[in-house]
Amino acid sequence: MKSPKQSVSQKLMFVGIVISVAFLLMAIATPLLQALGILTDPIEFLSNPIHQPPSPQHWFGTDLQGHDVFTRTIAGAGVAWQVTIASTVISLVIGVPLGMLSGYKGGWLDRILVFLMDAIYTLPSLLLSLTIAFVVGAGVWNAAIALSVAYIPQYFRVIRNQTVSTKTEVYIEAAQAIGADTKTILIKYLAPNVVQSLPVIFTLNAADAILTLAGLGFLGLGIPEDVPEWGHDLKQALDALSTGENIWWTTIFPGLAITLMTIGLSLVGEGLTQRFSSKKETNA
User: Fold this and answer.
1) Is the Cβ–Cβ distance between 145 and 221 less than 8 Å?
2) What residues contact residue 269 under an 8 Å CB cut-off, 6+ apart?
3) What Å distances lie between residue 43 and 118, 174, 227, CA to CA?
4) Most CB atoms closer than 10 Å: which of 38, 94, 265, 273?
5) How many Å apart are CA 91 and CA 109, to the nearest integer?
6) Do the Cβ atoms of 137 and 74 come closer than 8 Å?
7) SS3 141
8) Cβ atoms < 10 Å from Cβ of 202
């Protein structure tokens, strides 16, 4: 029987899934709607009046340059998903094998990798991503690389700790006894038993990546200026506030998009954490 805490957690997780799927559908549908002429070009601005409040022609109004805020808010979901998925996948592909190898081999290799990952982990993720983004330049993949470096230690630490506790199991010792090499043991025996928590880390990192990407965009790094991105749009809105006009629509909609997508992914991550913890208690 489910406890009240588990029931609430599952309901919140469902809400998070609905929000996340809604933003995913926005990202998928945007190119199709633009091709059909239903959505305008998010980088088009010359044909629109500037700072026009929400109206039937421009549902979310227009910004200082004449961009349609509704179109840019919808299109920003695609960029957010691209960078978020790319950065978390890069972190996973690098952090998981290193964590398994470090935890299984131990010795000097483990000490060096742990020291390196701990050094990276102590740095604030935004500061680290900002530094790397400044070096590699603007671009979707460059932004993903800048974000991924901060998340690699998280995958490494979790997988390493689980590998250390798992490598003493009987089936691992049996595989060693029959002469299985390190690659076989890591892939065939260790991997299926240490990667179960990856969906939790993946979703929580994705939520953090949304905020970090917005921070990079706000500071003018990460994504080129001609690409619709929520953080950059917030920076443009802040610059326009110096005119003294009440242009609330240029800030509230990109800011709301960042908040909702972050909350959605966070709720999914928290729900998976609760489910994973309950499963471990049941197995114990």
Assistant:
1) no
2) 16, 200, 202, 203, 204, 206, 207
3) 41, 61, 7
4) 265
5) 20
6) no
7) helix
8) 22
Distance CA 186, CA 99 (A): 11
- Dist CA 253 CA 61 (whole Å): 10
Token pair recorded at residue 154: 């998280």
Q: What is the 3-state secondary structure (H, E, C) of 183-223?
A: HHHHHHHHHHHHCCCHHHHHHHHHHHHHHHHHHHHHCCCCC
Q: Is 136 left (phi over 0), alpha (psi -120 to 50) or beta?
A: alpha
* Alpha-carbon 270 to chain mean position: 14
Distance, first Cα to last Cα, the chain: 17
User: What are the pLDDT digits (tens) for 144-197?
Assistant: 898 888 899 989 988 888 888 888 788 877 877 887 787 888 888 788 877 777
Tokens representing 268 are 């999914």
Q: Would you say how long the chain is, in residues?
A: 284
The Cα 45–Cα 64 span in angstroms is 9
Residues 178, 133: Cα–Cα separation, whole Å: 48
Q: The tokens of 91 are what?
A: 């972190």
3-state helix, strand, coil in the chain (%, to 5): 75, 0, 25
Give the list of residues 6+ apart from residue 64 with CB closer than 8 angstroms, or none.
50, 51, 236, 237, 239, 240, 243, 247, 250
